[in-house]
User: What shape does this take?
Amino acid sequence: MLDDHAKDPANDPPRKNFCLSPQDQAALIQLDNKLPIVRDRVPGKANGYHAGVTPTGRNGVGNPMLSDNERRALAELQSRLSVVRDWVRGVVLGHHPGFYFFGRPGTGKTYTIRGTLEQDGVKYYYHHGHLTPMGLFELLEEHPDCIIVLDDVAEILNQRIAVQILLAALGSQPGETGVRIVKYHRQGLDMTVRFTGGIILISNLELHAAPLLNALKSRIHYLKYNPGDAQISALMRDIASRGWPAGSPTITPTEGMYIADFLIEESQKRGYRLDLRLLVDKAFPDYLQHRDGQTETHWKDLVRATLDEQLIFLQHTQAAPKTRQEKKEAEYEIIRKLVAEHHGRRDRIDAWMKLTGKSERAYYRRAAEIGL
Assistant: This one.
């Protein structure tokens, strides 16, 4: 059972308009009762007990909210990723000019690279998306001694001038000074950058056989990343168990695990490879929007539509209560479930406040109306 600090609703993220169905609420209560309580420091709060907060850092190997098999899968993954972490640090320390890290989408490539840099306290510049050759040169000019992370770089590698700029920035170091001379000619002007930083490139695509790309591969470490679904599943649940967004969660660890389990199950039903981005970029935001009463569709149906990439028959969506009496009936059902789930009155009240965002007085009022 949680102690007073853990049960204090002030320890939970604020919620604007809690609109989950009784089925979702009952499932969350049941899952919350199964999850262990771990003593750790909660970001932005005093230390104490908090559901789902683990003292394991980012790797999740000792996360008590995971099964033994999941912890073993994460341990194996983290062991193999030591090569990636070492090459990232090699770029930071100046032993290597760059690193090309690629693999299928949604496997945590960006999470791994940025996590390593942030854990080591490294300041870096991150760029994601479209970048022209001139934009690349200006980036080197603005950050000549910085670690630059270029994410989703497939398009720029199809541009000969951009690849030539990268070759210069990642080339040999004259006189072992660590300075690489990068030149660009534009509108009659010759521009030069003395680059001493490092470049880490993240991509979904391998570098195909072409003279310039082969030259790029010869200058930097080059690694394909293809973890198995058991490892991605464990990583998804580990991330979910910390709440979302990381550092200042508005989705609790219990909710995160609930969402992750549903996404994993639905993906496996369809025979799809697991995708970490579907969790953090789509399922979490869809759930949050639904929980705050800003969707017509149940969050589970939104997740199913994401997976199917088309309009679907809605399995979980029900008509939202419209009248005051209908809302009261929904609250009566919550109280009945809380009475069935919790033996102590304090536990019921705390769960009521956590689920609905309403006061203790509101609990007593609704309970009295149905004779409980």
